[in-house]
Amino acid sequence: MPFAFTLSLYVTRVFLFAVTSMLAALSGLVVMFDFIELLRRSATRPAATFAIVSEIAALRIPWISIQILPFAVLLGGILAFWRLTRSSELVVARAAGISAWQFLAAPVLCAVALGAVATALVTPISAVMRARSEVLDNVYLKPGGGPLALAGGQLWLRQADTQLTPHGTAMLHATSVMLKDGTLNALGISVFRLDDGSKPRKAALKTASGPSRPAAPSRPTICPTPRAASSCPPA
Fold first, then answer.
1. Are 102 and 8 in contact (CB under 8 A)?
2. Which residues lie across from 203 on neighbouring strands?
3. What is the dihedral sign for C-alpha 126, 131, 134, 135?
């Protein structure tokens, strides 16, 4: 029995090393391709710097590792026992009268422990980190700045405007929006003020920012435009 116990620890060490190596290799390969894809998507996004792309890729590593863990255990086990068989160590153990279940019990328990640790500890952490990476992805890499993107990356808002007529309407159009640190930054803003039956009037801005909606200018320049009210898309 002492010899079987020592052999079980040796087989477990070989198995654990093979699983860890396989997990690191497969995770590294997937993370590398994911990082390359993020770099490709950030090529047209000036706000997405190399540091931000690296942070997004790093935050996804635990989630990717959890997805790969079952395959790493399977391939690592095959590699470990192939190595032990090739070196005739298992053949010698069986010739000495040691049952296969004696030296297989410890690797099986090790695999169960890996699954328990991954489920209880790593999975909640990976979920939080992946949620953070999705937020950064929506802010910096998705067209239009994430959840506020409408009409192909452009933002349209419509609200009542009673300064012209009691039933007037104001429509805000931004060519690009970005939500960062609780502040909405909008670029290429146009405000169309519509009244009953008349042509729309347009206030053109360059940029605006605010905690929840683009800030209106203090003195916008109002100019007539031939664009009809019916041509403005709904919010």
1. yes
2. 191, 222
3. negative
- Give me the mean pLDDT over the 82-105 stretch: 82
Burial of 117 by CB count in 10 Å (0-12 exposed, 13-18 middle, 19+ buried)? exposed
With contact defined as beta carbons under 8 Å apart, do 185 and 148 qualify?
Answer: no
Question: Do residues 166 and 133 both lie within one domain?
Answer: no
Range of the domain at 36: 2-141
- Calculate the CA 172 to chain-centre distance: 30
**Domain end point (choices 113, 141, 169):** 141
- At residue 131's C-alpha, the angle toward residues 125 and 133, to 5°, is 105
The pLDDT confidence band at residue 202, using thresholds 50, 70 and 90, is: low
Q: What is the pLDDT of residues 171-201, one digit of tens each?
A: 777 877 776 776 777 777 887 776 655 555 5
Measured distance between the N- and C-terminal CA atoms of the chain, rounded to whole angstroms: 76
Q: In terms of domains, do 114 and 169 share one? A: no
Does residue 147 lie in a domain region? no
Task: Please indicate, yes or no, if residue 137 is contained in any of the structural domains.
Answer: yes
CA distance 143 to 60: 21
DSSP string spanning 54-69? HHHHHHTHHHHHHHHH
Do 154 and 144 touch, CB atoms closer than 8 A?
yes
Distance CA 28, CA 73 (A): 16
